[in-house]
What does this fold into?
Amino acid sequence: MRDGLVSVVIPTRDRSWCLPEAIESVLAQSYKDVEIIVIDDGSRDDTRKVVSRYGGKLRYYYQENKGVVSARNRGLSEARGEYVAFLDDDDLWAPGMLERAVSAFRSSEGDTGVVYAGYRYLLRDGDKSKSLDRKVKCFSGDIFERLIMGNFIPLPSAVIKRECLEKAGGFDERIGWYEDWELFLRLSLHGYRFLFIDEPLLYIRIHGSNRSCDLLAMKEGALKVVRKIHDLSKGSPYEPLIREVLTWRLLALGWYLTLKGRPSRGRDYIRSALPVNLRQRLQKSLILLLTWLPSPSIRGINLLAEWLLGQRDPYK
It folds into this structure.
């Protein structure tokens, strides 16, 4: 591990049309002590040829297609820097991203493990690109109690200390969805603090080939993350809060399945919830009762169910 070096891992697959812009945004950083590691996860296009143009400015590794999470872990294993950052192949950094992050680390307390910045969406409007401001929740310090409610940190907006990743472990390739959220939660459980830079330094590109949205799979993935963190938190001060969040996720997923015409499966999730307080016991009883109503009635009372769960969309 080399002090001061930032290892930038870029996983890619069949994105030769946008990968060069991501690489160029790293090469354009005002902070120059950087290594770029491109992990090609089984591309069938001309990615190798595109990357070869950069010669010794980056390191390129090819692997058979195993998924983006595996590619990130491969990049982490090849990293030599004190800090590690993961940039998606279709996203871009502002020129000051890494300089601001490293400066923040050096002026922060020793237990700071993650520095993350604000971001903007990059949209295509005809032949022009335009950015759309995104209001970002800005939390620093011990952010676990906020983070367990849902992820608000895009992975490419973060720079992470290598030693923290080694202690907490890399990405869990079994998660499927929200592997970045799960990693941030583990880092927070290990006692590492987060530091927010209130400046949009990441541009997230919106296009037709963004990761597909299977809403049910995403919701089940979020539940899987909370269950894992619940198991890891036994005996910690956060255990009661995580139990409450786990119950809330089970009730919300059960109701979602009921709305989608699968009330039997939905009731299985609802029944498995273990309420931790009177409010959740009432929520469970009422939501379970609502699942027995006919489908037209269920849709009509959806607002009531959302009110009982305390949030219109519990997965955002």
